[in-house]
Amino acid sequence: MKLILIAIFLTLHLALSDGEIKKDEGILVLTKKNFASALSDSEHILVQFYSPWCGMSFPPQCKSLGPVYAKVAQKLASNGSPIKLAKVDAMKEQELAEEHGVRRYPTLKLFRNGKPSEYTGGRTSDEIVNWLLKKTGPPADQSSKKAKTFLSVAAVLDDIKFGITSDSEVCADHDVSDDAIVLLKKFDDGRVNFNGEWTEDAVKTFVQGEFLPLVISEQYQKTYEAAKQLARDFRGQLLFLTVETEEKDHQRIMEFFGIKKTELPTMRLIKLEEDMTKYKPEDPELTAENMKSFVQAFLDNKLKPHLLSEEIPEDWDSEPVKVLVAKNFREVVFDDTKDVLLAEKYKDNQSIVIAKMDATVNELEDTKIQSFPTIKLYKKGDNKAVKYNGERTLEGMSKFIETGEVYGQAAPDEEEEEEEVHAKDEL
């Protein structure tokens, strides 16, 4: 069993806005002005944060959900469902997307009485509808004595996931015909039924004794116990999670943190705020002392962010469009003798460099890319970055360069005010 231990620094994001709401194919079109009013008027509302560029360009994982989303709206309307669908153009409403921690497109979030939760279902219209119906359906009966006993145990064992249901279909799927506790796990036999007396002590003992594998390596056990103690020591300051990396659905987590299988088991720390800053321990050995020192150094603001970077390609400089990664970005972009921004047209101009960078696997200090593609011109001499917001054509971008970035320059309020240095990902 290979795990990643992730510590998450908790922050809170709030969005306040008001405004008139329009519809497109039965889907509410939300902006900064009307977002808050839409949430306050809706018990359940699914919001899609999207980019018009999805499906047409980089990155490859950015796929349009538009037609599917429209079908979902039609199905909900035909069934008389009170669930509302909405969408936000994150390219026009970048501030709104940032407030809700949107980093990939499309991103779906379900707001229940104004409180957001991440969408975790599939990408077909049927899968989205079924997920919504399950998440917004009537809650399980929690008034019985047995249910209260179960919930009391769940409240104290906060490192284990608990669920409760009164849904007859779910019970039938798991061969349950009466009140029961079933522990489901991805190892050993996969399932264990509780057959003891319905007391808090008996249920707690059952869960604690069954949720770990019957056979577990000595080293993993030491690491896991050290991590549990770490979570107790820093309770209320950080949230600690373990991730089973052998599960297919968890591969994206490894990609996000830039973790290779050869590094497992390992640990990362992340701040859940608009920059999603990641931290990596200097010592890869997960001893109790090393893990505690790592977390304490973070809380003392002594750690430097961990930035992802691909290796520099051997042929990065062989084509008119240069290939940049985090490791060679500053060397190329901050060359005082050259303006960095169209390949073939300017290949013989020694003062201009045209380059591209995959911002999903390369991260830069003081620079956060919020939309794709992003185009920026770095001026020689002062290394000042100017964002291009004109048409994506050879003529338009050439004018941008030849007019000294006057033509097509983004308005001041479209630039990230807090950043002194910016980056680009594709030109």
UniProtKB/TrEMBL annotation:
Pfam families: Thioredoxin, Thioredoxin_6. One of its GO terms (cellular component) is endoplasmic reticulum lumen. It is an enzyme of class 5 (isomerase). Residues 1-19 form the signal peptide. It catalyses: Catalyzes the rearrangement of -S-S- bonds in proteins. PROSITE patterns: THIOREDOXIN_2. Keywords: Disulfide bond, Endoplasmic reticulum, Isomerase, Redox-active center, Repeat, Signal. GO terms for molecular function: protein disulfide isomerase activity. Its main location: endoplasmic reticulum. The keyword Endoplasmic reticulum applies. Residues 407-427 are annotated as: Disordered. It is found in: Endoplasmic reticulum lumen. It comes from the Eukaryota. InterPro entries: Thioredoxin-like_sf (IPR036249), Thioredoxin_domain (IPR013766). Belongs to the protein disulfide isomerase family. This is protein disulfide-isomerase. The lineage of its organism: Eukaryota, Metazoa, Ecdysozoa, Arthropoda, Crustacea.
